[in-house]
Specification:
The chain is mainly beta. It has one helix and nine strands; from the N terminus they run αβββββββββ. Strands 1, 4, 7, 8 and 9 form a five-stranded mixed sheet that branches.
Length: 149
C-alpha cells in the first residue's frame, strides 16, 4: 500500500506519525517476498562424533574406519584423547551416518589376536569431544578393554 515498514501488521503511516516520525522508512516491495530456502552450501553442518580416551599407562595402537572406508592406524598415547568425526548434513537422520569400526589387541604386549568392534557416534553441532560419544581404553585383568564409561 504505502511501502512503509510494519505496514502489514499496523497501519504504518499512522503508527509512524503518532510516534512523531516525519519520514517513515521505506520498504522495497520486492524485499517483501518470502526468504529463499538456503542453498546446499549454506545449510548447517552437523557431525558424527566420537572420542577415544586412553586411561592406561601404555600407548595403544588401533585401527579404525568409517563405514566401508579404508582402515587407518593411530597410536593413542597414555592419558590422551583422540577425536573422530565426519561432517553430516542431515540433522534429522542421525541413524544413517556410517558406522565407526575399531580394531585393537586386548593384550598389553600387543601380541594377541585383534579384537574388532563397532562403535556408536553422536550427532553433534560441532566436531568436538564435548558433544561426542566418549569411549575409554582401560586395563582390566591384565587386558586392554574399551568401555563406554
Amino acid at each position: 500500500m504505502y511501502g512503509y515498514a510494519n505496514e502489514d501488521v499496523f497501519d504504518g503511516e499512522l503508527l509512524y506519525l503518532q510516534a512523531g516520525v516525519e519520514d517513515p522508512p521505506y520498504v522495497d516491495e520486492e524485499k517483501r517476498q518470502a526468504p529463499e530456502a538456503p542453498d546446499e552450501d549454506t545449510k548447517e553442518t552437523y557431525y558424527a562424533v566420537l572420542c577415544i580416551e586412553n586411561n592406561t599407562t601404555v600407548d595403544i595402537t588401533y585401527w579404525y574406519k568409517w563405514g566401508d572406508g579404508a582402515w587407518e592406524s593411530f597410536v593413542l598415547k597414555s592419558k590422551e584423547r583422540k577425536l573422530h568425526s565426519q561432517p553430516w548434513k542431515e540433522k534429522e537422520d542421525a541413524q544413517t551416518f556410517p558406522d565407526f569400526f575399531i580394531k585393537f589387541s586386548p593384550d598389553i604386549s600387543g601380541k594377541s589376536p585383534v579384537k574388532e568392534s563397532p562403535l556408536k557416534a553422536y550427532l553433534a553441532p560441532e566436531d568436538s569431544c564435548n558433544f561426542g560419544k566418549v569411549y575409554y581404553f582401560r586395563i582390566k585383568e591384565q587386558r586392554i578393554d574399551l568401555t563406554e564409561n
